[in-house]
Design a protein that fits this description.
By secondary structure, the chain is mostly helical. 76% of the residues lie in helices and 3% in strands. The protein has a two-stranded antiparallel ribbon with strand order 1-2. The longest helix has 26 residues. The relative contact order is 0.18.
Length: 120
């Protein structure tokens, strides 16, 4: 069962989908609903996968190399100064699970909508 943040993201995404369908297509059809909700699902999944990648430490080595290369205030950074810097994966206090859950549920909604569209 999705938690409160996931449910809020899903409800906001669905409301914005209907609102954007009225604005862009001037009516709500199943095709317009599928087209717009796909972008919300993809955006939510992109945010969650990006934060998972950052939290996993993928960019820590890259940022460590840049920290060793750059000069601070005209002086080279010592190894101790570079080691004392907090890695990027620890700087992000962002919980990815509501975005992942919401993105997956929105994707299921898009798939169900697509099946309904081609079925009828």
């Amino acid at each position: 069962m999705p938690n409160n943040r996931s449910a809020t993201l899903i409800i906001v995404s669905l409301c914005l989908t209907i609102l954007l369908s009225f604005i862009i297509y001037h009516k709500v059809t199943i095709l317009s609903f599928i087209n717009i909700s796909f972008f919300f699902a993809a955006g939510l999944l992109f945010i969650s996968f990006f934060t998972i990648t950052i939290k996993g430490g993928f960019f820590d080595g890259i940022t460590y190399g840049f920290r060793r290369m750059f000069i601070s205030k005209g002086n080279e950074l010592s190894k101790q100064e570079v080691d004392e810097m907090i890695p990027v994966s620890e700087l992000l206090p962002f919980d990815h699970s509501p975005f992942l859950t919401s993105g997956l549920i929105m994707t299921v909604i898009v798939v169900i909508g697509t099946l309904l569209y081609y079925q009828f």
